[in-house]
Amino acid sequence: MSMFDELDPKEFEDTARAVIETCAAATDTAARATLLAEAGLVGIIAPEAVGGLGLPIRFAVPIVSAAGAGLLAYPLIESILLARHLAPVAPTIASAIAAGESVASIAWNGCAEDGVVGGAPLGLDAAQVLVFLAGGGAALVLPGAGADIQPGAGLDVDAPDSSFTLTAAAPTALLDAEAVAALRADAALLRAGFVMGSAAQCLALAAEYAQERVQFGKPLSAYQVLRHRLSRDALAVESLRTGLTRALAEPAEGAAMAREAVWLAAAQIGPNVAESAIQVFGGMGFTWEVPLHRHLRQMHAQATYGAATAGLDALAADLLTDTNNEWYGDLANAG
Amino acid sequence: MNLQVSGQTPPAPDAGSPAARARTWLAENLTDRLRTDRAHDTPATLQERIAFEKSLHAAGFAGITWPTAYAGHGLGLREHLEINREIGRAPAPNSVNSIGKELAGPIIMAVGNDSQKERFLPAILKMQEIWCQGFSEPGAGSDLAALRTRAERTAEGWRINGQKIWTSGASKSHRCLLLARTGTADERHKGLVLFAVPITAPGIDVREITSIDGQRSFCEVFFNDVIVDEADMLGAPDEGWAAATRVLSIERASNRMYRSWRFQSELEHLVAACRTDARARAIMQPYARQLAQIRVEVEMLKGLVETLVERLIAGEEIGPNGSFPKLYWSEAHQRFARIGLEIVSQFPPGVEGPLHDLRARMQDIYLSSRAETIYAGTTEIQLDIIAKRILNLKRAA
User: Fold this and answer.
1) Cα(A201)–Cα(A203) distance, rounded to whole angstroms?
2) From the CA atom positions of chain A, what is the Rg in Å?
3) Catalytic residue among B86, B102, B129, B251
4) What is the pTM of this model?
């Protein structure tokens, strides 16, 4: 029994859904920061010393899942990560982020040594941006001060990404390689949770529409070809849900593999389910008005931030050079 | 970049745990003769496989959750899962008596009377009685409720007339778990009754069917005025079927629980064997990303299986949710089998040793896997179940 057993992550999800709905009507990113922080959502896993709730990561997953479902225009994954992982090295900045007083983002793609980094959701509104360093660490920089901002190239329209050209940025905080590895491990789980929420919402919209839309005298949901399409999407979403449950339980046979797998699966399943929902909606699915494209866009953006394709290749390289089953140990040694 | 994810050797199970004992026992008792990852000129005989399964049970690794009163080991589903992980990691043959252990046994425990439990259950685990399943018929495959085999009550006992098909292992079995009807076919789910029929009863004719993998496991079973004792009826007429379907929904989630880990070990065998030879390694390389994708799917499958096991342990009804792992496993495993076949098909002629063994295994897995999306409810049936019972999609405006 842990001290958190009386708390139910589900309750945070319900809170998150309500707050995120309110956020949709908020005037700007700063206003959303305040709403999210007041509900304790940004500091959910940050230490109490910086004003956080100090809860385990499994409490943050339902929150970002609600953010994915609700098309939240806020860098919530990044803020949750920074409030936790900056706490030991830059407690003042971490507490400002947890309190919603400071908007922060992470430039997920590229490293500072390249001169340009990108993939920073809502970097335009961020007061602090974390950039990665070639050696495995990361530096927090101030946009504008030697980090010149440009619109990014990603697809997301709700939390559009930015790029930064780094000239003479002076870091306000540094994370070492170990801290960055821990941040990335948390990020994989949060991204998978975000995509699960977004994909589940696409499926729910498609299932609802299929039962309302009548063609040839029957709802679309009467046609087996569409019933089976939706069943396959349900299987995909269910596999994400149970995969996340398993990864969060840190299975003894390999917590790192469980985490990496659910993230890599999410990066594919998310866009697949959104594409499928667009197809079910027919012509309406292709309109800007129906929000399915926003889900599709934000899930592709997550796949880019998490470098899912490179991750799959890294897993492949690993798989082909290592064997962990003693029944094939003699073969592995022969190679 | 080395993620250090797939290469990490899983920690050895706690010494003395059921999993640790299973790992040690398998390493000592799963002989080359029985290993399914070796090409055998003469495959292990039925008697050898029965002897292996007998010793597997005696060592504590079959009948894990069955009550000790019926020769089980009285442990929980968690121990069952832990032991099955180890069975899956090993190249162990599939059970000759899986119908007895995973279908007939649980049904008898649910609906059988005390005398039937005593008569049938220990004999299943001790491999004295091998069971087959007489459900499907030529006119009742996916639509099982269309079955026509008749059971009439007579002064001598129940008189059975009809035909069953796809009865796995009937020609090697001693008893048949038979589903028949007391009324007429238009009654559908009503009036269905279960029997434990001795396969040697007069009037039973078993004919083997050769399947696409060259095996002769499937059979047709003909019943011509077969008399079955009242004592061999399982549950009351009309009651047996409802209990049986409830058991079946759990079984779909829990049977062959080792499948995800067996799947992973097949992938590991493929990679390890290809790495022994520069030519094979070069053939495998272009499939790297597809194999990584399969590795991801194995993990997702474990999530689907383990989450359902946790729900069963918590005493929850899982209802139609058993469709998820069955559907996911069967399709992912077929994709893997296809990739494996493509790789071994490019091996130069005359390869020997590990590559010869691998080729034989992958060919076998490829062909036999074609049945996986057909048996135990086809893919289309699973998709129907999800649409109807999980998504509750309506059929009319």
Assistant:
1) 5
2) 21
3) B251
4) 0.95
